[in-house]
Amino acid sequence: MYNSEAAWEKATVRVGLIGTGYAAKLRAEALLHDERSHLVAIAGHTLEKTTAFAKEYQTEVLSSWQQLVEREDLDLVVISTINRDHGAIAHAALSQGKHVVVEYPLSFDVKEAEELIALAKIQNKLLHVEHIELLGGIHQALKQHLAKIGDVFYVRYSTIKPQNPAPRKWTYNHELFGFPLIGAISRLHRLNDLFGKVFTVNCHQRYWEIEPEYYQTCFCTSELCFTSGLLAQVVYGKGETIWQSERKFEVHGEKGGLIFDGETGYFIQPGETTPIEVSTRRGLFAKDTSMVLDHLFDGAPLYVTPEESLYTLKVADAAQRAAQTGLTIFMADTLDQS
């Protein structure tokens, strides 16, 4: 419970929001619908878009995130902007004595992420890294049925999205989105949450591009060997030279398999296939936001810790180094260096 400022049971959390995209809109809606929070101000990438966003949600416009984090009338900063800026904004907000909620990834840099977690503890402030994939129907169904398939030996998780033409936006920009499995770190975080620690990491990636900053296609494959002996493949791709979409999670065990194709799930045993009910993905940002407020007001536990997110960032960083060098990265060496 963070109660150093006031008797929060009679107050509202005053929130500043950074970002104007999809996640920011869902955050704004969640904050407006919870009487415990008051959305005070917003800062975005372009003034025109930020002004329109602020008008829709009846909040104040600020010209920069730097201006927002320095506001004395804010308790909480929610970071829902381009991946590259997450670490810098979180550091500034924590240094100004604000609680921080940040969409994944916490940072591109492992050392910076470690420093942010340490700073939050020094400041006695909440640092929450959103990982709503853990709250989603597929992940919850996996957890519910995992014990039925016995010892798990192989997992394949593939998310491939054709987009033609590829949008010229930050999610297709090397600097702003980051290395694919850091920018889309949820692909790895699901596995760490379900299967624990990683022993070795291999990774290969390829871009198709006609200019240095933006790419038209990204394709990345990673192979993880877990300390349990489990082998996992993670495939991530998007863009113009991809022709078939896929969102599939396969878990193979000695007694059966769990297959999730899109929002459809099956439990497979010899001679029998049983459908698995998967709840909707709608409302997850609202659920995350509500849990944050429960934590701030009542000390209720959150569903993920920044340390857990940090561990996955170390795995993603190992994947990046494996892709750059062509070498197998041993996580024990990575953890020894941190």
Could you write a compact summary of the structure shown?
By secondary structure, this protein is of the alpha/beta class. The protein is 35% helix and 29% strand.
Provide an overview of this structure.
It is a single chain. The chain is of the alpha/beta class and about 350 residues long. The protein has 2 domains: about 10-130, Rossmann fold (3-Layer(aba) Sandwich), CATH 3.40.50; about 135-280 and about 315-335, Dihydrodipicolinate Reductase, domain 2. It has 12 helices and 15 strands. Strands 14-13-12-11-7-10-9-8-15 form a 9-stranded mixed β-sheet. β5 (about 100-105), α5 (about 110-125) and β6 form a beta-alpha-beta unit. α1 (about 20-30) crosses α10 and α4 (about 85-95) packs parallel to α5. It is globular and about 60 Å long. About 40% of the residues are buried.
Write the layout of secondary structure elements.
Elements: E1 13-18, H1 22-32, E2 37-43, H2 47-56, E3 60-62, H3 65-69, E4 76-79, H4 86-95, E5 99-103, H5 110-123, E6 127-130, H6 137-145, E7 152-162, H7 174-177, H8 180-183, H9 186-195, E8 198-208, E9 217-226, E10 231-239, E11 246-253, E12 256-261, E13 264-269, E14 272-276, H10 284-298, H11 306-325, E15 329-330, H12 331-337
Helix pairs in contact: 1-10, 4-5, 5-11, 9-11
